[in-house]
Amino acid sequence: MSECLFCRIARGEIPARKVFEDETVLAFHDINPARPMHILVIPKRHIESLQTATEADEPVLGHMLGIANRLAEENGSPDGFRVIINNGRVGGQEVSHLHAHVVGGPEPVGPMLKRN
Ligand code: AMP
Ligand code: ZN
User: Fold this and answer.
1) First to last CA, the chain
2) pLDDT given at position 16
3) Distance from C-alpha of 21 to C-alpha of 106, rounded to nearest angstrom
4) Closest Cα to atom 13, ligand 1: which residue?
5) What pLDDT does residue 2 have?
6) In this prediction, what percent of the chain has a pLDDT beyond 90?
7) Which of 27, 43, 44, 46 could pair covalently with 10 via S-S, beta carbons 3.0-4.6 A apart?
8) How many A from CA of 37 to the centre of ligand 2?
9) What is the domain partition of the chain in residue ranges?
10) In the sheet that 82-84 helps form, which strands lie side by side, from edge to edge?
């Protein structure tokens, strides 16, 4: 069994505040929210990042994006939201199980990135 943190959340071994679940994806509140709404959407099956995802993963990748608006509307961000996926060292990924951050709230989330 994988010791991966998000695999363990997907298996129910570690608690999470779930907001959506179906056969292939799970969504739950980020433990350290950066905005009033901060939800993580993960594939239940372990995919490390978009660096290692294959063509076979494209349906679940599409599904992760396809449910984002519904998650935002149902969790306090009905007027738009942002999706962020960090990948690998350069992308600043800390948990090595692919996850989309869906962030928002009543107010705009702010500039996309600080310019160097
Ligand atoms: P990233 O830097 O893109 O890998 O994001 C990892 C995210 O996972 C961070 O926003 C963390 O706050 C979040 N996180 C870490 N552990 C947990 C956990 N047990 N439950 C929910 N979110 C978590
Ligand atoms: Zn995993």
Assistant:
1) 41
2) 98
3) 24
4) 30
5) 81
6) 95
7) 44
8) 23
9) 5-104
10) 18-21, 25-29, 37-43, 100-104, 82-84
The fold of the 5-104 domain, in CATH, is HIT family, subunit A (3.30.428)
- In ligand 1, which atom is closest to the CA atom of 34? 10
Q: Characterise 12 by phi-psi region: left (phi > 0), alpha (psi -120 to 50), beta (else).
A: left
Centre of ligand 2 to C-alpha 58, Å, is 17
Residue 103 Cβ inside 6 Å of ligand 1? The answer reads no
Query: Position 6: which residue type?
Result: F
- The whole-model pTM stands at 0.97
41-97: per-residue pLDDT in tens? Answer: 999 999 999 999 999 999 999 999 999 999 999 999 999 999 999 999 999 999 999
Q: Is 99 a catalytic residue?
A: yes
Atom of ligand 1 nearest to the CA of 16: 20
